[in-house]
Sequence to fold (211 residues):
Amino acid sequence: MHSPRLKFSNALVSLAAYVDIEGVKFVLPYKIAILLGSPRKNGNSEQLAVSFAKGATEAGHKTQTLRTHGLKIGGCIDCRRCWTNGTHCFLHDDMIDIYQALDEADVITFAVPLYFYSWPAQIKPVWDRLLPYYTPDSKVDLTRRRAVLLATAGDASPSSFDGLRRSFELASAFCKWIIAGEICATDVYGAGEITTKGDWLEQAEALGRGL
Fold:
């Protein structure tokens, strides 16, 4: 995947510097929402996210991390009643916390373990519940954001991520997001193995710092 062309400016946009990415101006510093999709605390995907956040914070960006495990987030029921009760979704559950973070985010990061070659159950409902942003009556424009995928798997083959990466790319295209980076760490199954295998954490930190 090619890197988007970047143009930096010292001009003031709302009294802030900005970066121009593929014709879209992003005000700096970024607000970054990091969604943890693992049921395991301090697991490999979360450590990848921590390193990413460290790099981003050192670069001056603001990060917010949300753990989806333990939240009550129901699946989309296709009721077609988005925004009818004054907020994003007709369902009243913990997805409101995710919506609030996404509304303000410039960069949306998904940090997940690979489960059966796809998304874990903790994060899939979040994707499905993005529908309110793409209805004719949407009150929030979530297009023109940047998206990052941080994923881990016990499988040693990079091709094990093909399905997940394709889903991420297609969904990001539908959402009209610009993909800022993908790190798919292989062969890290046991808790904490990512600290001793490969340079995945260093790559994540560099990605965060280089946004």
Q: What stands out?
A: The beta strands are 6-13, 16-21, 24-27, 31-36, 62-67, 107-113, 146-152, 178-185.
